[in-house]
Amino acid sequence: MAEYDYDLFTIGAGSGGVRASRVAAAHGARVAIAEEYRVGGTCVIRGCVPKKMLVYGAHFAEDLEDATRFGWEIGNAKFDWKRLRDNVLADVDRLNGLYTQTLENNGVDIFGERATITGPHEITLASGETKTARIILIATGARPHVPSIPGHDLGITSNEAFHLDAIPDRILIAGGGYIANEFAGVFNALGAKVTIVNRSDKLLRGYEEALRDRLLQISITKGIDFRFNADLRGIEKNPDGSLKVSMTNNDPIDVDCVLFATGRVPNIEGLGLEAAGVEVNDHGAVTVDDEARTNIASIYAVGDVTNRVQLTPVAIREGQAFADRVFGDKPSKVDYSCIPAAVFSHPPIASVGLTEAQANEQLGSVAVYTSDFRPMKNALVQRNERALYKMICDGETGRVVGLHAIGPEAPEIIQAAAIAVKAGLTKADFDATVAVHPTMAEELVLLK
Ligand code: NDP
Fold first, then answer.
1. Which of these, 235, 354, 412, 435, could form a disulfide with 442 (CB 3.0-4.6 Å)?
2. What domains sit in the chain, N to C, each tagged with a CATH number?
């Protein structure tokens, strides 16, 4: 008889947990997974996927406006938020079903309830039932961080944004990172008066400065308001039901909705980590080595709960590498260098490798190439919105160490170009590549 009920028990069926469980099962392990909410996790259920659909939906506002310059008469175009919302949520249901099916097809037992670690090899489910496993994987992800200001419970987070009954007339978005800029673009396009309130004077920390400045300038032109160096002080309900938001250095603002986009914190509460002796760092993240091991030999962790790189494709790689290593006998490690990323703002930003400032810190000599251009489509529709591409090279070798773009389809373009950056190609290699004309991506091989 087997010593444990399972070879692997995964807690959390998000991107990292599902990949790890499915691959471990494919390697022949007996696997179970516990999920207290819905299989798919943040990315599929209330993150990347539904967000991207809202971004598509919102972009029609501009596309319909532009269509007249292309000769189309649109007439009385009307937007129905509930229709978009419900279609998006229905697709989320479909994906939730597919993820569940994938686990089932691989023979993974799914427990739709909360799980707590009650020993190095023991899990107790919310029902009180206990299960044992040779290996436990923590893949519980992260959740929105809400600053503890008075009245914070009057605000919402991205979790609730997908379920709103209506687009608010006026929305205040707290934070200046990914979620703030992505939802600002969506709500602004869908007709809300958007104000971004940020504690510093910088948006999207870590991204190339010139692109952040360009996004700010375009966002202001589109009608988004910004309050910088503004620390939120509190939220109160006005007699008419609207919300009064106070902050430092600025007058209070009356809005109909407050959305907190102020970072995400690892989900470790109530997991039993303390009792099990699993180490957690100062940021509340499970501490792991480069093979996803915690300090307890039988317990591993992947994804946002480890708070390394909070991106779905990274969690998926961590889950895959863990399963291959532990159950597939395949030495496998995640390479964290050169991770491309994108912000699905209006317009989007995408990036891979070093920024100019980082390159200046790390390299002896740096060469920078820039293309600042108006995409052909924007020219015809007389939209004065310019794209900006930046290539950062090692001045000595010509190796491309960073690529940064803001403009239509920037994430699609940078994803492909990131292969060349990852492969260590040089500016000369880019120059030797014939352009596809007319495209925006051709700017990358025509940089002077
Ligand atoms: P970000 O880390 O991108 O931005 C958080 C913002 O909130 C920053 O402007 C930060 O300011 C500010 N902030 C943090 N704490 C406080 C506080 N206590 N009071 C006021 N302001 C605060 O987080 P998001 O919430 O936007 O997104 C979370 C993570 O999810 C991202 O880091 C990203 O990894 C991932 N994500 C990825 C997406 C993508 O790939 N397209 C989309 C959405 C999310 P400061 O800069 O001063 O720290």
1. 435
2. 6-144+265-327 (3.50.50.60), 152-262 (3.50.50.60), 347-445 (3.30.390.30)
Supply the pLDDT for residue 2.
82
Distance 177 CA to ligand 1 centre (A): 4
Percent of the chain with pLDDT over 90: 99
With a CB cutoff of 8 Å and minimum separation 6, the contacts of 351 are 207, 208, 211, 340, 341, 342, 402, 403, 404, 405, 414
CB under 8 Å to 199, separation ≥6 — which residues? 176, 229, 230, 231, 232
Place of tokens 């007996």: 30
Residue ID of nearest Cα to ligand 1 atom 4:
177
Atom of ligand 1 at shortest range from CA of 180: 26
- Active-site residue, 346 included: no
pLDDT at 1 over 80: no
Separation CA 198–CA 261 (nearest Å): 10
* Angle (deg, nearest 10), helices 81-105 and 48-67: 140
Amino acid at 95: L
Look at ligand 1, atom 25, and give the residue with the nearest C-alpha: 263
From the CA of 260, how far away is ligand 1's center (Å)? Answer: 10
Between CA 274 and CA 80 the distance in angstroms is 48
pLDDT digits (tens, 9 = 90+) for 40-71: 999 999 999 999 999 999 999 999 999 999 99
Beta bridge partners of 193: 170
- Mutate which of 199, 226, 343 for ligand 1 pocket (most atoms within 8 A of beta carbon): 199
Give me the percent of the chain exceeding a pLDDT of 70. 100
Q: What is the pLDDT of residues 77-135, one digit of tens each?
A: 999 999 999 999 999 999 999 999 999 999 999 999 999 999 999 999 999 999 999 99
Write out pLDDT tens, residues 210-224.
999 999 999 999 999
CA dihedral 227, 232, 234, 236 (to 10 degrees): 30
Catalytic residue among 59, 152, 283, 437: 437
